[in-house]
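User: Once you have settled down, look closely at the record that follows, taking as long as you need, and be ready to discuss the fold:
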Amino acid sequence: MDKQRDFVLRTIEERGVKFVRLWFTDVIGTLKSVAIAPAEVEGAFTEGLGFDGSAIEGLTRSYESDLLAHPDPTTFQTLPWRGEIDPTARMFCDITTPDGQPAVADPRHVLKRTLAKAADAGFTFYTHPEIEFYLLKSSSFGPDGPEPVDSAGYFDNVPGGTAHDFRRRSVRMLEDLGISVEYSHHEGGPGQNEIDLRYADALATADNIMTFRTVVKEVAIEQGVYATFMPKPLSGKPGSGMHTHMSLFEGDHNAFYEEGAQYQLSRVGRQFIAGLLTHANEIAAVTNQFVNSYKRLWGGDEAPSFICWGHNNRSALVRVPMYKPNKGQSTRVEYRALDPAANPYLAYALLLAAGLKGIEEGYELPPEAEDNVWSLTDAERRALGYAQLPASLDHALEYMEDSELVAETLGEQVFNYVLLNKRREWQEYRAQVTPFELKSNLEML
């Protein structure tokens, strides 16, 4: 770590960095940033930077508000959108109490704690997210809702289109930040795009997602458009997901791979999927944390609504992608409910905890879904044992409230804060009178 710190201090000097932003997230997953002068960086490494934690959503209770942000030197990067004028860098931080203990409500620590539990069982957790978002002409909207930048569709090539330039600039910026991009393309909705990040360990991925959301917002501003990670911004159009491919490794060996097994999927892999299915409803209030998230889950267009798994079945909640011959290391499972508005630290902690629980308890994997699950009748789905995902945030909170797994993984403070914050959101949503009701009822009743 000392070598890494020396590298950071040397790079700041060599590149003439004028500001260093210290980044961390609140419990909802909003990025927080404080800029310090280069002269303060060494002190931040040794002592941390003090701040009032009670001013940050869910981070601490008011009577224990003093917290310290400790920059992680391995996350140091200069910010490409700042250009050559006043070069600026960033580092992610770990949050501690004044006596050096990890802050219990630091989302990054929640994930680190769960990764440590996986490490005790001999596993490293790798993730690869496919992040969808919409490009809109602006953040304001009229009676017809937000206006997308184009009317293109899935994989469309739009000559001279905004999205081309946007994706090219975003990908280049992400690569400049050391974040490897696997694919980028136009998605199914008008103005909808997808950029997939390359496999990395889950902590690096969560950091990368926070950086990704910032890069996409910055490039949008630069190009005079607006980017949103809202799960369902346009009525009647596809929602935005963050399908995540996951695998556990034991050293250099992919623990999900077993040569000759069905889909080359090992017993560990099958138990991991069984854990995801068993606990899907309990973790939904975190993987899908907004009222709007459930408009996506129940809006069709390839969003999963039922708890089942399948091989290459895009209507299933968990998919086992096609096996590539001679590439055993690529065996993985894809969780399709997660959306891009989730706090990635908490969401990945819970997905990992659910999978590990399946392995620890030896959960049995039910038969796979071979049909298009959306085209079945309710009676057929019931007969096959496909339970529903929660239909609303309120429904998801009921499951979460009774979940030992979620309480244990998040810790008491984060668990209680999420419940409190999300109940408030549901109450405010439920209390409003919507345009739909006025249009349907005002003149008729």
In short: The chain has a mean pLDDT of 91. Residues 1-103 form a domain with the Ubiquitin-like (UB roll) fold (CATH 3.10.20.70). DSSP finds 13 helices and 18 strands in the chain. Residues 202-222 form the longest helix (21 residues).
